[in-house]
Amino acid sequence: RATATMGEVPEPSPQAPLAVLSKVELRVSCKHLLDRDTLNKSDPCVLLLMQSQGQWMEVDRSEVIKSNLNPVFAKIFTVDYYFEEVQKLRFEVYDSHGHASVGTHDDDFLGGMECTVGQIVAQKRVTKPLFLKYGKFAGKSTITVISEEISGNNGYVELAFRAKKLDDKDLFSKSDPFLEIYRIDDDRSEQLVYRTEVSARAGCGPRPPRRLPTPAEPLAPQVVKNNLSPIWEPFKVSLNSLCSCEEKRKLRCVVWDYDSRGKHDFIGEFFTTFEEMQKAMGENKVQWDCMNPKYKIKKRNYKNSGVVVLLDLKIHRVYSFLDYIMGGCQIHFTVAIDFTASNGDPRNSCSLHYINPYQPNEYLKALVAVGEICQDYDSDKKFSALGFGARIPPKYEVSHDFAINFNPDNDECEGIQGVVESYQSCLPKIQLYGPTNVAPIISKVARVAADEERTKEASQYFILLILTDGVVTDMADTREAIVRASYLPMSIIIVGVGNADFTDMQILDGDDGILRSPKGEPVLRDIVQFVPFREFKNASPTALAKCVLAEVPKQVVEYYSYKAFPPRCPQPETPDSNLSSPQ
């Protein structure tokens, strides 16, 4: 959000697009590095590489730390973050003999580690062993990467100030005071954050009608005329603008006596922080002496040039997708596979379910493309895998929500590979049948999501991936189920497999209008994304994942914002024991 220094920050609009792209800062440290130098300890440096089109490209490198086998690097790596992509990173540690030569000699290589941006973001802190070439451990060497989102706007704050007994600077009348707030940046420069404007008022009478300036009219400070105890209008500023989202950052507040020629008279100033301002929340008030340094030196009994009071402070937080993920929110992934007869006999090479030993079918391609993204955000790496539209053993009755591992008490599989294996092993055991009913599966996942909602915490969000070869038969029930699910922490992705006419499926997407139940009730949120797989048949698997998952971060934020659930407190950072194998 662009913020004018002298205007109000508007409240977030429900219709305003939410930014999905974030920037993430990565901080790196190592322990127990190999000692490559004969006389001294290694001089380590870290290179960050990112995979692009199958090639590793250097993004940045750290400083060189002299003679240290347990370095903590000051360099902060900044990377763009996209939820819908698998962003592969590689960290390489070298013993440097001059910065230009880093990475040029095999003997200087102290070890490398690969991971994804998603893994680091989901866990906040990842510790992994360093490996030399050919998967050999680099002794006991480890590397730790800590992530932190660069918060572009973590909400805004509403402030209400007044002053009492200000110095009178006018000869024939009282002062016309206005207030300015400056943020003091790291280089000690000052940035104007806010100047009291438009609708300030004097005393406690009714507020005058508000008149906004025309675009060509300069926004002059609105002063309170002839009043040494003014009450300024409440105003809003973003936390990023006010204090760079740092509560302890120093702020300078200045009170002036307005002069129409621009030669405003200095009344006094005071210094504070947002941390101190927050004491004014609730019934409390905070006040500061408004000081004129010159008077303080010249006048022996000088006390102040008035008092400024913060009457009220209200914080309006605006959280991002990463705030929720870094707060410990898990993404639970469920896949539902269409086993209706229209797919064709799996033993026939023309079937959409045919298992080709040399190339995965469209169901597997879609499953893996989407699942590989989601698995980084689920700590136990277990995924529910369901089927519908088939006759299943032992009685071979038609089921529209069966576990493809045939364990009704636990439909979860170990990782994406576990889902793939369960899918392949179940095909010979079932009879493809019909019809294509998906409402039962949507309702099943919704029941689990409803249980999660009752916790009133942002702890689990559910993604249901439905893979189907045709238009759903139970359209009315499906619309009803989606409307109910739109009130719950879940999103639905539907991928149309094969060459069927999926025109009617676009109704469920809601992009061209608001999806409604048969009774006319609209969805609370647009939670469905539908795409035909054939549009990505000749593209890379990542293209499909980008398309169907791009909306998920926005949907997560919309749901928790609607429920007013803040991110959970981040869990204590502990080394990750599940990421210790070579890549």
Give the C-level CATH assignment of the largest domain. Answer: Alpha Beta
Tell me the major beta sheet: 7 strands, mixed
* Secondary structural class: alpha+beta
Task: Please count the beta strands (DSSP E, at least 2 residues each).
Answer: 26
Kindly estimate the percentage of residues that lie in beta strands according to DSSP. 25-35%
Share in helix: 10-25%
Our count of helices gives: 12
Distance between the terminal alpha carbons, to the nearest Å?
Answer: 40 Å
Number of domains: 3
**What general form does the structure show?**
flat
In CATH, the architecture of the largest domain is 3-Layer(aba) Sandwich
Q: Compute the average pLDDT.
A: 83
What does this structure look like?
18% of the residues lie in helices and 31% in strands. The protein has twelve helices and 26 strands. It has three domains: 22-150, Sandwich (Immunoglobulin-like), CATH 2.60.40.150; 156-196 and 225-316, Immunoglobulin-like (Sandwich), CATH 2.60.40; 330-443 and 460-555, Rossmann fold (3-Layer(aba) Sandwich). The protein is of the alpha+beta class. It has helices spanning 117-123, 239-243, 274-277, 293-298, 321-326, 362-374, 415-426, 439-453, 475-485, 506-509, 541-549, 552-563; strands spanning 22-31, 44-52, 55-61, 72-81, 88-95, 109-116, 125-131, 137-149, 156-164, 177-184, 190-195, 235-238, 250-257, 265-273, 286-289, 307-316, 330-338, 382-388, 390-392, 397-399, 402-403, 412-414, 431-432, 460-468, 490-496, 528-532. Strands 17, 18, 21, 22, 24, 25 and 26 form a seven-stranded mixed β-sheet that branches. Strands 4-1-8-7 form a four-stranded antiparallel β-sheet. Residues 5-130, 137-289 form the C2 domain.
